[in-house]
Amino acid sequence: MRENDTVLVIGGANGIGAACCEVMKAHGWSILVADKDEAAANEIAERLDGQAFALDVTDIAAIDALAERIDRDIGGPAALVVSSGIFQPNVPVELTPTELFDTIHAVNLRGTYHANRSFGMRMAARGRGAIVNMASATAHASTPNNIYGPGKAAIVNMTKCFAGEWGGRGVRVNSVSPGIVLVPRIRGLKAKGDRYPANLDEQMALRRCVEPREVAETTEFLASSRASGITGTDIVVDCGWATGALWNAYLGGLR
What we know:
Layout: E1 6-10, H1 15-26, E2 30-35, H2 38-47, E3 51-54, H3 60-74, E4 79-82, H4 98-126, E5 129-134, H5 148-166, E6 171-178, H6 184-192, H7 212-223, E7 234-237, H8 241-248
Helix pairs in contact: 1-7, 3-4, 4-5
């Protein structure tokens, strides 16, 4: 990263995206935040001396318009973080409505694709840029998230495709796969025991869930010049969830 480089965080008003804004500001980035939650985006931008934009990632024309506007006004962002996404309830596949499939993929997969396409092709034209997409540990395993997980797996593969497409023109594209991250919503579910087992922390090799800051630090690293030789890579940040799950398959499990 060079001094005063600008990052656009799509989905940056809440959760992991908001943590990315905070951490990247601390590392010296200038912050642009785009989110459907315009009020929260404005609050983040005001606190971090940045700029906020209202954006619905299901609206392809709006993504293109924002990319054109930022390109025109500031010469485009040096980095793009795509953290927009919605979760899936733990519902058996036979009870999952078709509409839920369409809704989740419209935001998580289709929105990420078009954000990468619109901003990435402009980065490629400038000969410089870095993109970090938010995937998920569920992309790499079997979970009850039978819509969310496959969509995130597609994001991992898409990331590799774009990395090959634009690498020769100076654009790096990577992804981060968080495990169970203690954003406020997840903390609430964990405390109530609605979605996760009481011994959830014990399933992780590190005996705890992931803090949002840990995902954000990994994201900032991949966006920065410190990762100048890394592209087409997915980094799992899960406190050893996958590792712990394998140990727990055996009698005695983790100690």
